[in-house]
Amino acid sequence: MEIKEVKHNKKQYLPLLLLADEQEDMIDRYLDRGTMYVLDDGGVKGQCVVTDQGDGLLELKSLAVEPAFQGKGYGRALIDFVCVAYKEQFAALQVGTGDSPLTVPFYEKCGFVRSHRVKNFFTHHYNHPIFEGGVQLVDMVYLRKNL
Hints:
The chain is α+β, with helices and mostly antiparallel strands. The protein has helices at 14-20, 24-27, 74-86, 103-109, 121-125; strands at 2-6, 35-40, 44-54, 57-65, 92-98, 113-118, 131-132, 135-136, 140-146. The protein is globular.
């Protein structure tokens, strides 16, 4: 397994990016200013994008693993990689996600704790309703992990 930075042509991974953030114009808001990593294990299995939010805060803007390979530790491996790679430069890693019964418990198992929420984020910023695990995503829930 190898995790490597993608510096050019990040949109070649658009299908993976859309798994994490299903509206392309939302991805465009952070992709160019973010640092992208792909996890390769006999082919690309996952990706993540991180951005510097200032004041020692790093944000995980996108984390996705190919559906056939979910639940095999690839998402956690990407998070662990980011934590190790950035622990000297940043105090904390945060992630914003929908209040989903699938996603929030995953991040909590990875050591994140709930920080705050942005009311109606998904209904105000996306042009269609988003559902995950049978739940419509309305608020953005932020979770944080000290590095």
